[in-house]
Amino acid sequence: MPHNIAAADGGSVAANGGSDAPVKAGFWALTLGCIGVVYGDIGTSPLYALRESVLAAVGPGHAVSEPVVLGILSLIIWALLLVVTAKYVLVLLRADNNGEGGTLALMALASRALGGSRGGAIVVLLGIISGALFYGDAIITPALSVLSAVEGLKVATPAFAEYVVPITVVILIALFSVQSRGTAKVAALFGPITLIWFAAIAAAGLWHIGQNWNVLHSFNPYYGVRFLLAHGIIAFYTLSAVFLVVTGAEALYADLGHFGRGPIRFAWLVVVLPALLINYLGQGALVLADPKAIENPFFLLYPHWALLPMVGLATAATVIASQAVITGAYSLTQQAIQLGLLPRLEIRHTSESLFGQIYMPRVNSLLLVGVLLLVALFRSSSALASAYGIAVTGTMVVTAIMAIVVIRRVWHWPLIAALALMLPFLFIDFTFLSANLLKIVEGGWMPLALGAAVMTVMYTWKRGSRLLFEKTRRQETPLEFLVASLEKKPPIRVPGTAVFLTSDPTSAPTALMHSLKHYKVLHEKNVILTIETADTPRLHAADRVRIEPVGETFSRIILRFGFMETPNVPKALAIARKLGWQFDIMSTSFFLSRRLLKPAAHSGMPRWQDRLFIGLTRVANDATSYYQIPTGRVVEVGTQVTV
C-alpha cells in the first residue's frame, strides 16, 4: 500500500482537475490562483536568501567583493533554472498520479508499479521519511517568512527592533486562529496580492540593475564555478544558504491536481521566474554599490517612503505563503490517514464547493505551538534560516529517487535513460543536502528531530495496525462458515438491516459475534462492510461499491475511496441502490467494534512502541465521525485486545 506527503500538498484553493484533466475554472483564473498558492513560499525567498548567502560567504563585518556577489548570483540563477525549471517544471510535473502530484502521490504511483516487492516497501519507507520531513518545513516556513517580513520595520526605523518578535507572534496567532473558518474567501485575494508582490519586487530590482549592468554577467555559470573552486569549504557552506532560493519548489508538484500542469508552468516561466531573477540581480547590484546594504538588501532596494508599504505587502505575501503550507499540512495528514500511516483525526470541510478546503483542529494546534516555539527560540530570520534547508532538501532527494522508479516502471524508459535524466538532479539535491547538514548544530537539528518523531509515529502506527490485524484475524471465525451455520439454524430475526464494519471481509466481524452472543438475534438483512483505500487520489462513483452475496441474508460490500478523499459511508452506500441493494438509512443500524488495547507480554514490537501505539489509538477519532455515519444509527460493541 502506498503514502502527502505529498509534499507541501498544499493548495488551499482548487479548481478540480489534474494535469491533463479538464478543469472547471478557466486557464487565466487557474494561473492567477496558482501564483498565490503555489508560489507564495518560493516568492518570498528574496526577503532573506541573498543576504544569508553573502553573509555565509564573507561573514558579518567583512568586505563584500564583486567576485563573491557575482559568484553567488550565478549559483542562485542556476539553482532556479536547474532545480525548479528543469527538474520540477519540465520533468516532475509529468509524473502525475491520475492528475495529482506531491511526494505521497508519487509514492503511491511508485509503490503500485513495484507491487508487493521489497522495492515497494522501500518506496513506502521513503514516503514516510518525506512526509515526516514536510512537517518540519510546515512549522519553519510561517516562522521564517513572517519574521523576515516584519524585520523590515527595523529598516524603516530602529525603534521597531524590540517589537519585531511580539508583532510576529500576534500575526501568527491570528493566522492560525482563522483556519477553522476556512480560507475560501481569503484565497480569492491570494493571487492578486501575490501578483502585485511579484510586480513590486521586479520593479525595484530592475531599477538597481540599471545602475550596474555588470550583474548580468552572473548568468554565465563560470562565475559560480569559480566561486566554488576559490572558496573551498566556505563555498560548500554557502550552498546551504543559496538553497533558500528554491525552498517552496515542491509546491509546484504538490499542487498539480489543484491547478493543472499548464497554469503552473505558465505562471512560473512568465511571471515568477523573471520576477525572482530580476530581484536577486537588483539586490546584487545594490550590494556592489553599497556593501553595507547587505544588512537587509531586500528592503533597502526601496526608497524610504516606500518602506512601510513594502513591509505591509511583504507581511501579506508571507502570510499567504504560510497559509499554503498550513493547508498543505492538512492535506498531507489526510492522505497519510487514508494510507494507514496515521490514526484517524478529525477533518472538517470548510467549503461545499472546493475539495481542498479542510481544517484539522489537532494538526492546527500542534503547528501553532511548533511555530511559536521556533520564533521564541531563534528570534530572527537569520538564525532561523539555518534550520530551514534540511527538511526541504531531504524531501527533494526522496522525490528524485522515487521519480527514477516511476520513469523506469511507469513510463517504461530504459534504466540507463531514467538514470541519465534524474541522476544529475539527484547529485544537485545531495550536494544541497550535504551542505545543509553542516548546519545541524546551528538549528538544523530541529527539523531532523521533528522528522524523526513523526517518522516514529507513522512507522509505529503502520506496524502496530498490521500486527493487530494479524492477531485478530487468527482469532476470528471465517465468515462463510458462520453464515452457513446461521442459515442452517437461524436465530430470531428482527426487521431492518445491520451493517457490520470490519477491516477483514473474509472473517466474521467481532461486533457480529458479540451481537449474536449477547442479543441472540439477527436482522433480516446483514451486510459485512469493508472500507478500502485505493492507491489513486480519487475514484469514480462506478468504482466505489462492490457487492457480493455471501448467503440468503448476508452480503459483503467493499467501499473504496481514493487516498485524497474523505470517506462518507452513507453517501457511498446510496450508490449501491443502482446495483440492486435497497438501502434506507432510517432502517439501518451500523455495528462497530471499539477495542480497548492493552500491552501483551510478548508482542512483535518493543514495549515502548506498544505503549505509543496504544496511546495513538486513544487519540484517534472514532470511526462514526470519520466515516460520517449518523450517530443515532450506530451501535458500538466494546472488546479488550492485547497487542
CATH structural class of the largest domain: Mainly Alpha
Biggest sheet record: 6 strands, mixed
User: What is the helical fraction, as a range of percent?
Assistant: 55-70%
Oligomer type: single chain
Distance between the termini: 22 Å
Shape: elongated
Low-confidence stretches: 1-24
Number of domains: 2
- Mean model confidence by pLDDT: 85
Explain what this protein looks like in three dimensions.
With 643 residues, the chain is of the alpha/beta class. The chain has helices spanning 27-37, 40-43, 49-58, 66-91, 103-114, 118-150, 152-156, 164-177, 184-209, 221-242, 250-254, 256-259, 261-289, 307-338, 361-378, 381-385, 389-409, 415-437, 440-475, 479-488, 510-519, 569-575, 607-619, 623-626, and strands at 348-349, 358-359, 492-501, 521-533, 545-549, 554-561, 588-598, 634-642. A hairpin with a 4-residue loop joins β5 and β6. 59% of the residues lie in helices and 9% in strands. The protein has two domains: 27-56 and 92-190 and 231-259 and 305-462, Amino acid/polyamine transporter I (Up-down Bundle); 476-642, no CATH class.
Could you give a short description of this structure?
With 643 residues, the chain is α/β, with parallel strands linked by helices. Helix content is 59%, strand content 9%.
